[in-house]
Amino acid sequence: MSARCGAHSPETPEASETSDANPPANGAAAETDATVHSDEERRTIARARVYRRARTISVVGTFVVLLLGCLYVAQSLLLPIILGFLLSLVFSPVVRTFAKFHIPNAVTAFAIVLALSATVIAGIYGLSGPVSGWIDEAPNIERQLRLRLADLGEPLDKLREAQKQVSEATDQNNGDENVQKVVVAEPNLISQAAQGAPDILAGIALMLVLMLFILSGGDRIYQKLIRSLPTFGDRRKGLRIAHDVEREVSRYLATITAINITLGIVIGTLMAIVGLPNPVLWGIAAAVLNYVPILGAMTGVVIVGIVSLVSMQTTGQALIAPALYLACTVIEGQLITPMLVGNRLKINSVAIVLAIALWGWLWGFVGVLVAVPLLIVISVIAKHIEGLGGLRELIGPHVKAP
C-alpha cells in the first residue's frame, strides 16, 4: 500500500505539471483566435465605413446635380420669387417704421410697390433712346473701333485670310447650279429682346405682387413658418434665423444701394465732364454693375474704355474716362464700402467669386446680382445650425495663422 503510494507519489507532480502546462497553450490559442477575430472585425468595420461614406457621397452628389438641374429649368419661376423675397427683406424695416405711426402695412406696401414700379418704368423709358441709338450705330462703332485698334491689324488680317481660305474651300462647288447654299440668319439683339419681353414682364409682375403680399402680411409670414416647426426649441431657433437673415440682408442691400447710387451719380458727372456721350447711361450702368463685387467694376471699365476709344479724338483722351471710372471704383471698393459695411459681410472673397460664377451660369445676369445676397442668407443659416459647421468654415473669411 505504501509502495503503491510511493510509486504514485512521484507521478503526481508530473501529472500536475502536465495539467498546468495545457491551460497556457489553450490560452495562447484563444488569444490568437481573439486577435484574428478582432482584426477581421476591424476590417469589416472599415469596409462598412467606406461603403457608407461612398453611399453618402453618391446620394449627396445626385441630390446636388438634380438641384442644379431644377434651378436651371425653373429659373423663370424661381427668379421672380427670390427677387420678391429679397426686396421684401430690404423694405420690411420701412413698413415697420411707418406702422409705428399707425399707418397700415397694406398702404405702405402698396406705396413702395408703386414707387418701385414707377422707377423701373421711368428707367426703361429713359434708357430706351440711348440704348437704341447705340444699337443703330453698332456698325459705325465697330468700324471706328477697328481703326483705333490698328496695332492688332496683322493678327486680324491673318485670321481674315484663314477664314477666306476656309470659305473658298467650302464654296468650291459654287459653279454647280444644282448645289444649294444654306444660310442661317441669326436673330439680332432687338428681335431677341422682343421675343423675351413677355416672360420678363410676367416675371416682374410676379415679383411685385409677391412683394406686395409679403410686405402687407408683416410678421405673419414669419409666424406661419415658425409654427410649422415641430419643437419649441426649433421654433426659437427658426425665429432667430429669420430675424438675422432679414437684418443682415436688408442692411447689406440698403447700404450697397446707397453706395451704388452715389457712385453712379459721381461717374455720370465725370463722364459728362470728359465729354463721353450719354453720361446718364454710364452712371446707371455703373450703379447696376457695382452690385457685382470685383467683376462689375472690371466690366464697367472695359465698356467705358471701348466707348471712349470710339468717341474720343485721340488715344490719350480716350484713356481718361476709363481711368476715372477705375479710380472711382477703387476708392469705393477699398475705402468707402469697407468703412460703411465693416465686418458685417464676413464672407470669403473666393466664395463670393465662386457664388457669382455659379449663379451667373445658372441664371445669367440676374443670378450674378443675387449671388451675394443668397450667400449672406446661406452664411446666416450655417451660423445657427450646428451640422453646417463645415459650410460655415468654407464660406467664412480667411483667418491668419498665429
What does this protein look like?
By secondary structure, this protein is mostly helical. Among the domains are: 77-149 and 197-218, no CATH class; 250-342; 346-395, no CATH class. Helices cover 83% and strands 0% of the residues. It contains 15 helices and no strands. The chain has helices at residues 2-8, 11-73, 75-99, 105-136, 138-148, 153-170, 189-217, 220-227, 232-274, 279-289, 295-311, 315-318, 320-341, 349-384, 389-395. Helix 5 (138-148) packs across helix 11 and helix 14 (349-384) packs antiparallel against helix 15. Mean pLDDT is 75; it is low at 1-21, 181-186 and 398-402.
Short overview:
With 402 residues, this protein is an all-alpha fold. It has helices at residues 2-8, 11-73, 75-99, 105-136, 138-148, 153-170, 189-217, 220-227, 232-274, 279-289, 295-311, 315-318, 320-341, 349-384, 389-395. Helix 3 crosses helix 14 (349-384).
